[in-house]
Design goal:
Blueprint (H helix, E strand, L loop, with lengths): L8 H7 L12 H16 L1 H13 L4 H26 L2 E4 L2 E4 L10 H28 L48
Antiparallel strand pairs: 1-2
Amino acid sequence: MADFLFISPTEIKQTTIVGGGVDDDRFVFVISDVQNTIILPLLGEELYNVILAGATNGTLTGLYLELYTKYIQPITKYQSVANFVLISNYLVTNGGSVSHTSDNAQLMSAEELTRLSNTYAGMADTFIDRFNDWIVLNHLTEYKTTQDGVDASTHVSNRSGWYFGKPSNRIQDPYPQSPDDIIKF
């Protein structure tokens, strides 16, 4: 689990459907998982480590701060909620696996949970697409699609069900040399 979270449980509770009464330990691991499964492959290991160190120390500036606040934090927030919604009713304890129910509430159906999760995953996808457009125009030396460790990938997939991006079999230079090298759709 990541020691530093790109978005705090409090921020998630204040800006999403996650209720303020939800215990942080019920979903903090989901935030860490998103950082490792979505953000790390999106940025690549070198840029991820720069952002993590800068965010941890509060020293991000310029393009790095813009990347962090406009893309990394929203992606982390929305994908964390999307993942949490699907597991929030369940708890594994010493007594076994249980489904939590409230005395005065009705659990959502699997279809309703999936639809809600997909809504938040779609929000994360929107920011991933915006990041992909942004990184083409803003050169950061640590962003490399080939490197030792985890390579940066523009093909981070989500399960939102909607995809309006580029075909996955297309190879593109993350830093076009001229405006003519940018393929427009």
